[in-house]
User: Fold Solute-binding protein family 3/N-terminal domain-containing protein from Maridesulfovibrio hydrothermalis AM13 = DSM 14728.
Amino acid sequence: MLRTFALILFFVFLLPYTAVAEERPVLTMVYKDIGKPPYMQVKPDNSGLYLELMTRAVEKIGYELRIIRGPKKRTHYMLKHGLADLYPAAVFRVKRSEFLYYIPNGLYRHESYYGLTGKNIPDLNSISDIRNHKLVWIVELGCSWGEEADRYGVAYSEVKEITVDRALKMLIHKRPFFFRFIKEDLEKYMEANNLKSFEGKGVKLHKFCCHSNKGTLYVGFSRKSPLYSEQVNTAYDPEKPLSADNFPFELVPGSVPYRLKIALQEMIDSGEIASLAEKYFGEKWQDVLSKELVE
Assistant:
């Protein structure tokens, strides 16, 4: 009888505490709704390189990864106000370094772009041509392309989500709009829809309108996250440009983002990230790795 009673006490009182003890703390990662395969699929499918890479990294420091999808502007708002902890991959930007700390993730971005306009627009050979032809650049809410448009004096308008289908529908009405897409994304769309050109849809493709974009990618960790902790970086040189490698603050040793940085570096050094890149990009895997890893 006493033995039975003891077992009952164990299950009632001790097992709940055991379950709690085994639960891992959570790191929240945000990413845009529309996705970017094979980095991450369109919502609600989170599969892709970013999911596997970041899941492995956070598990190495004893955390569980939680993912929230939303419009890009909302994800930036969450990071800016500490409502989310991290973004998986971003190029360093001075403006966003006000609320993001950049941690190397071993990846690299090299994107080429094409433009879409109405069929009667002359060939565009530069961003300035967009302004010269009085076109309005349509950009996704929260996208840094709006900042680029500002630098060139190009009028722009932000919309929640931009897809090729949506751009085509807007251009059919002969509005003076300009859309920019990643070259590979447009080529995939054309292949999937058996299109040799956009002329039949009343739309013109501009292959020389935009310069390519390339740079090292980083995990952007929210400086407003309750898990974030920083200290003054004595190696910072104010005479040099602000960058991920020359920043006024550094991570406090032992803090969560510091441990994440160490885990990611170990994955880089061991070849684990290179292996993941090959898994998701096949023959083009070297194109998405930091240049230091393939030289």
About this structure: The chain has two domains: 24-109+214-293, 113-211. The chain has nine helices and twelve strands. The two ends are 72 Å apart (CA to CA). Confidence is low (pLDDT under 50) at residues 5-21.
